[in-house]
Amino acid sequence: MAPALLSPLPAPAEERSYFVIPAVGTSKNDGVDVGVIVPYVLADDEQRVTKIIAPMFIHNEFVGSRAAINVFEYPTRGEEYRLIASYTERTERKFLYSYRNLFLPGGRFSLEANVGFFKNGTARFFGIGNQTSPAQETNYTDRELLGHITTGFYVGLSQRVLWTERLRNVEIQPGVVPDLPFTQAVFPAVKGTGGATVLGHQLAYLNDTRDDTVTPTIGHYLSMFAELAQTLTGSTSTVFSRYGIEYRMLIPNATKRYIFVFRGRLEATVGGAAVPFFERSSLGGQNTLRAFGVGRFVDNHSLVFNFEERIQLFHLRIVGTVAEIETAPFLDIGKVTNTFRYRAFSQYEANPGIGFRAIARPNVVGRVDFATGNEGQAVFAGLDFPF
What we know:
This protein is mostly beta strands. The protein has helices at 2-6, 183-186; strands spanning 15-18, 21-27, 31-37, 40-43, 49-60, 64-73, 79-88, 93-101, 109-125, 138-156, 159-174, 196-208, 219-231, 239-252, 258-270, 281-283, 297-299, 301-318, 321-337, 349-360, 364-373, 376-382. Strand 10 (138-156) and strand 11 form a beta hairpin.
């Protein structure tokens, strides 16, 4: 897999272009970034993007200067390689490598795998529960070694049964945000603040009728999973289970200029206070409640609803590839809880917002989302749709 990802020369038919993008951004947890990205884009003779090599240099207010390289390759439909590596002046490091092939030879099986290491020095923890106060905010460095492999078997049209084995090793180290206390010092009794190693075994069912997995315009997505996991470190091993169901629906108009998108997701963790906090259900960040930082709310269970109206504005030619420019007003609604028996219809967070996206079908999405909520505004940027 690696030679295909790292091959330096394109096929003769590929078109090569690069351009310079100023990178200025801010997010709830990570603070202000200022820098530059230089994407090097390769496309085939049908104008399909086949590879992106994007070196970047960023200065962050908390961790200093960061040099990074991002490599994305799309050899065939449903096949993808990703390599993300970065080195930061203070604390943060990252190396993530992943491979996905939705249609292995014969068409009956799929394979997804990733391995990685990272240190995120701006992680936050506010305690357990939906009503935690912003005054409880703490900071830590999330140091993780991780790996997972998922094999899939097609049981019908657009339907797969998936089996996943994952290993996650987490250390909680002092963070880099100067004005916030260390999580381990404030919450020593919370399981997981001393770190843990987790081994998980997951069985899932997926029914995906969308016309594309990266840049869909129509169809639905239904996912259900059950996982049995255990901690491998400490004096005693803790066994717990996780369950989830997610449904997405895309409804376009006749021209697909307007696409209404809905996502509902319910997750449950069974094991109580013995479950490490980073293995419980959480909300916040660019893919759930976009007015809050990643992991803002943590508890046993979570429920989130997202609504978007994706509106195509115009087409733009970028380095030989036609990109669609769209805007997307949205509303996110969600909560975490230790039980749904009480206040099932109250204490929800709701944050409206608007997103802007550039889409080079079928493989590339760039986006910026602006949202507002009870604790102020947040801005998130990403290289895919939020759902």
